[in-house]
């Protein structure tokens, strides 16, 4: 082999008197014993290579199984949502019809029963819709694009305008917000949930001041987006619950909602290769932090092979 030093070998040949003799000479050929040694080393590495290939195949099989399970779950939730929504709609319609037609004959207690029944059916339908939306986000980023958060925040604040005005809140954007890579609709939902919560969970005597800002995270291709408020804050002992589906820290009488908004935010952040967490704000309130990427590979929406 090229680069190997010549070595001495004994070559049989005939002498002048026709006797067989061994003559020592230099050769660049691989000695037989070295060839066997190399073959032995190669064979020894085969189990490791087989294990590596088997592990890659197992990962691929697991990913396929996960994808199929998610597709089946979404289909099941879609069917369940449709099949359950129709009866709920019928119940609500007949209860409202009963209230209209028999209204004068119903006493105050009966009308209260009708109200609670309709309210319960409406809340169940809203939860089914939220659950279906949550399952759809689980399929990741369908149409990744460059998303300009400055523009997106303007749209979100416009949609939340009535809620912001009713709560007497002030929403400020500190500096310039970056462009990131992801699904524009999902990132809009994330911002709407975070800002909407910051506006909603306020102290009774005043509206919240909500601030949005972004800073480059050190040694990464990521931005840290923060949404801070000076509202009621979150009990640190209960903080882990806020990321779970349909978990609430307050009653519906205190604050409206189904308890799925932050679970959806976490799912969106993770599907974009990032994460989300919350810390107490100085002086009271909360700061929600979201890690988002401006590189498609880091965001998990484009593989290295696809980028090449």
Automatic annotation (TrEMBL):
**GO MF term set:** phosphorelay sensor kinase activity
What CDD domains does the record point to? Answer: HisKA
Domain of life of the source = Bacteria
Q: Which GO terms describe its cellular component?
A: plasma membrane
Going by the UniProt record, its keywords in alphabetical order are:
Kinase, Phosphoprotein, Transferase, Two-component regulatory system
- Keyword Cell membrane appears in the UniProt entry: no
Catalysed reaction, written as an equation: ATP + protein L-histidine = ADP + protein N-phospho-L-histidine
Pfam families in the record, alphabetically? Answer: HATPase_c, HisKA
Principal location class: membrane
* InterPro entries in the cross-refs: HATPase_C_sf, HATPase_dom, His_kinase_dom, HisK_dim/P_dom, HisK_dim/P_sf, Sensor_kinase/Photoreceptor, Sig_transdc_His_kin-like_C
Query: What's the protein here called?
Result: histidine kinase
Q: Where in the cell is it found?
A: Cell membrane
**Coiled-coil residues:** none
Q: Where is the Histidine kinase domain?
A: 79-296
Q: What is its EC number?
A: 2.7.13.3
């Amino acid at each position: 082999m090229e680069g190997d030093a010549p070595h001495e070998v004994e070559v049989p040949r005939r002498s002048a008197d026709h006797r067989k003799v061994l003559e020592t000479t230099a050769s660049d050929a691989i000695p037989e014993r070295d060839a066997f040694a190399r073959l032995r080393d190669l064979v020894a590495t085969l189990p490791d290579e087989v294990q590596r290939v088997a592990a890659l195949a197992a990962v691929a099989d697991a990913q396929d199984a996960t994808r199929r399970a998610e597709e089946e779950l979404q289909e099941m939730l879609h069917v369940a949502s449709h099949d359950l929504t129709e009866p709920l709609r019928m119940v609500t319609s007949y209860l409202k019809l009963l209230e209209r037609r028999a209204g004068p004959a119903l006493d105050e207690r009966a009308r209260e029963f009708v109200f609670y029944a309709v309210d319960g059916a409406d809340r169940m339908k809203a939860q089914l819709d939220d659950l279906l939306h949550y399952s759809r986000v689980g399929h990741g980023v369908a149409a990744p694009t460059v998303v300009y958060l400055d523009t997106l925040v303007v749209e979100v604040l416009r949609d939340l305008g009535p809620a912001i005005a009713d709560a007497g809140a002030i929403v400020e954007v500190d500096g310039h917000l970056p462009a990131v890579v992801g699904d524009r609709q999902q990132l809009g939902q994330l911002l709407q949930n975070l800002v909407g919560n910051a506006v909603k969970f306020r102290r009774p005597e005043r509206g919240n001041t909500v601030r949005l800002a972004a800073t480059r995270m050190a040694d990464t291709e990521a931005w840290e987006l923060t949404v801070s408020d000076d509202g009621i804050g979150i009990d640190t002992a209960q903080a882990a619950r806020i990321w779970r589906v349909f978990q609430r820290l307050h009653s519906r009488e205190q604050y409206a909602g189904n308890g799925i908004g932050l679970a959806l935010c976490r799912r969106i952040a993770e599907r974009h290769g990032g994460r989300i967490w919350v810390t107490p704000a100085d002086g009271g309130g909360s700061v929600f932090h979201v890690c988002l990427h401006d590189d498609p590979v880091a965001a998990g929406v484009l593989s290295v092979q696809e980028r090449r």
